[in-house]
Amino acid sequence: MEKIKVLTIFGTRPEAIKMAPLVKELESRKEIDSKVCVTAQHREMLDQVLNLFKIKPDYDLNIMKTKQSLTGITNRVLEGLEEVFIKEKPDMILVHGDTTTTFAGGLAAFYQQIKVGHVEAGLRTFDKYFPFPEEMNRKLTGALADLHFAPTTGSRDNLLREGVKESDIYVTGNTVIDAMEHTVENDYVFENEELNYIDFKNKKVIMITAHRRENWGEGIENICDALNKIVDENQDVELVYLVHLNPVVKDVVYRKLEGKKRIHLLPPLDTKETHNLMNRCFMVMTDSGGLQEEAPHLGKPVLVLRDVTERPEAVAAGTVKLVGTDIEVVVSEANNLIQIEEEYNKMSRAINPYGDGKASQRITDSILKYFKLSDKDFEAFK
Fold first, then answer.
1. Where would I find the UDP-N-acetylglucosamine 2-epimerase domain in this sequence (predicted)?
2. Is 310 in the active site?
3. Does residue 41 carry a pLDDT above 90?
């Protein structure tokens, strides 16, 4: 039987979470010779996801270095992938989203005239510096891609406005919803013992992440000051802040919040721990992109600690609200959800626009159709 070789490339934990169910789907198809290459742009956090989903990469570029620069990451990915491509000669590579690995992977494939499939394509803020460098990574990858797997109709429309042919775009839903089908358990016992002692039933537990480059400095300082006020003004609230390992973030957070009553500062958790914490918590405050998709799937309101988002569908649906990093605005919006049940219910009961758990299947079907190995009609996510 004729097979096509598909090489999936990722380098960070968020990419790995979203690509893992797709890797498993590719492996299940007899028409596909599936290969995996990780760049390890992030190392420890990436390995946690690989272990969870039992994925053993065929190639590991292991590029991560202390205080790595964007230029350094790009150079090491380009050089490492060139060797992999020459050896494997894939028919198509798949990259995800908006990381430096994604852009460099697409560029390396272009140099070898290899087809590029872009998973989670078409998200835009329309400001090349917000988020930085993610907005341009995603846009430049879109210029290199042959197939665009847009999670929503809004993402598809962005691509159409940029001149991408409609026949090259597939609306699939987001693969992160596929991943959560395998990670969330109602009777889950946390590996982090501190979480097992938190009273999720009687306290309003807020999960926080904040580490985006554009929030470094004043943004993180303001977020921490706002969190202090939220705890002081709401005795039934506890905070669980998953603190990024980067000293630019970690040093500020610990200086501002360490030792504060009802604030738990924890290192980043693995994927299963994170998803189950999200499932138990009251709401989420974050500057992350992925959590804007994951939390609504579990009925958790999200306050986004940014001024813009490349995921406007969640804002339109009412599951997510942009609040920026102004202290008074953050505190006011958080208090509305904590103190006013009607406001909370509006957001928690809104419909998540990001997927139905079948994105990986749709992506794989569309690849097979592209290479004329299937005549199955594509049914878009709506």
1. 24-367
2. no
3. no
Long-range contact set of residues 64-71: C-beta below 8 Å, sequence gap at least 24: 64/40, 70/100, 70/133
In terms of Cα–Cα distance, which of 352, 327, 323 is closest to 337? 323
Closest CA to 73 of 121, 119, 109, 40: 40
Token readout for 179 is 């991943």
pLDDT over 70 percentage in the chain: 100
| 287 counts as catalytic | no
- Catalytic-residue membership of 191: no
Catalytic residue among 13, 211, 306, 362: 211
Query: Quick check: is 244 catalytic?
Result: yes
Rounded CA-CA distance 119/175 in Å is 9
Q: Which of 13, 29, 212, 213 is catalytic?
A: 213
In the predicted model, what is the mean pLDDT of residues 252-281? 95
- The predicted-structure confidence for 309-325, as pLDDT tens digits, reads as follows 888 888 999 999 999 99
Catalytic residue among 25, 88, 120, 294: 120
Exactly one of 15, 25, 88, 98 is catalytic; name it. 98
304, with CB counted inside 10 A (0-12, 13-18, 19+), is buried
Task: For 281-312, give the secondary structure using H, E and C.
Answer: CCEEEECCCCHHHHHHHCCCCEEECCCCCCCH
Of 25, 88, 134, 135, the catalytic one is 134
- CA 48, 101, 171: angle at the middle one, nearest 5? 90
